[in-house]
Amino acid sequence: MATPIRSCLACRRRDEKAALLRLVAVDGIVTVDPEAVRPGRGTYLCERSACLRRATDNNGISIARALRRPRGTVTVDTDALRAARRAPASDGAQVTQR
Questions:
Q1: Residue 75 and residue 53: Cα distance in Å, rounded?
Q2: 96 falls in which pLDDT band (50, 70, 90)?
Q3: pTM over 0.85
Q4: Which domains does the chain have, with CATH numbers?
């Protein structure tokens, strides 16, 4: 069976789905979805710190656009994203929408 391939939101580098961090908006909150099981449109971010910075520039507008959220800004808790990148899959760090 073929391994699913996804692209990083920031650098557009293609990698295996399991190697990227999935973000998804649920009830107006952008949540880290390590198991990739939450409903809704998701976007992926690779492990590089430069990609985290690029994705969170301009109040996270890149994340909002990738998730096709209504016009507005997303408040990104970069500490939660960093923790989720290092944490086991069961950790549910959150990022909130403003």
A1: 13
A2: very low
A3: no
A4: 5-96 (3.30.1230.10)
Residue 78, φ and ψ in degrees, nearest 5: -65, -30
Instruction: Please give the single-letter amino acid code of residue 24.
Output: V
What letter represents residue 93's amino acid?
A
Q: Is 71 exposed, middle or buried (0-12, 13-18, 19+ CB in 10 A)?
A: exposed
42/20 Cα distance (integer angstroms):
12
Among 24, 82, 29, 17, residue whose Cα is nearest residue 52: 82
Question: What are the CA-CA distances from residue 65 to residues 29, 55, 86 (Å)?
Answer: 14, 10, 25
Write the pLDDT tens digit of every residue in 25-63: 776 677 788 888 988 889 999 988 899 889 888 777 888
Tokens matching residue 4: 């699913």
| Sign for the pseudo-dihedral over CA of 53, 29, 8, 58 | negative
Q: Return the bridge partners of 14, or none.
A: 7
